[in-house]
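__Protein archive entry__

___
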Amino acid sequence: MPLPRCCNYEAFDIATKAAWIIGKPGAEAMRQTSDGLRKLVDDMATTKQTLDRGMADLGIV
């Protein structure tokens, strides 16, 4: 069952909300977001290392 594309979660009963969690679409969405943020952090660390190395080659501290 996919999550609804709205922000009015008060419009849904507890059983429906529980089905989102138990049925995994909510948990899967959070996992995908978490994975994306972790990749972003790794990419930013790699970029910082590359910039630091390049600046050091130019004599910039």
